Amino acid sequence: xxxxxxxxxxxxxxxxxxxxxxxxxxxxxxxxxxxxxxxxxxxxxxxxxxxxxxxxxxxxxxxxxxxxxxxxxxxxxxxxxxxxxxxxxxxxxxxxxxxxxxxxxxxxxxxxxxxxxxxxxxxxxxxxxxxxxxxxxxxxxxxxxxxxxxxxxxxxxxxxxxxxxxxxxxxxxxxxxxxxxxxxxxxxxxxxxx
Length: 194
Description:
Blueprint: H1 5-16, E1 21-23, E2 40-52, E3 60-63, E4 69-88, H2 98-119, E5 122-126, E6 133-137, E7 139-151, E8 158-176, E9 188-189, E10 192-193
Parallel strand pairs: 1-2
Antiparallel strand pairs: 2-4, 3-4, 4-8, 5-6, 7-8, 9-10
């Protein structure tokens, strides 16, 4: 696999909250002068857990045209937890406080996640991979929400709030199978068959 679930999730979030810089690290949202553009959504992976489904033996096999097994696979239940931190500054043009903007972003994402829970699943696409890679997510769960104190050490003040989201999916883990074919020649000699 060359794609990234985190990137696919970030691209999905970008489509749901247009005009917001969705980034995987704080430095990614800074210009040459070190200034960030707001509003921003920072995605941080907190954990990834994987548990095999079924018996310890391989659950399926892939065969080629000759009928030889070329790959063996297992299914695994995977849970990846992300923290989404929303940050915004006061908007002088509209008079909207930064905290109101950050909370509105969180509310929009929360409502979108709840809608996906009702639909029964979603496919996230990492279009930055070559070729595009699809990630079938069975369920998105909202784990919790947090209030973060405002950053008053810089001007303008940055207001933040966060939420924790878990993506649950079933993945296929595949490994190639090597075949070793030996040719055995049977000959008859003076002392019997060899």
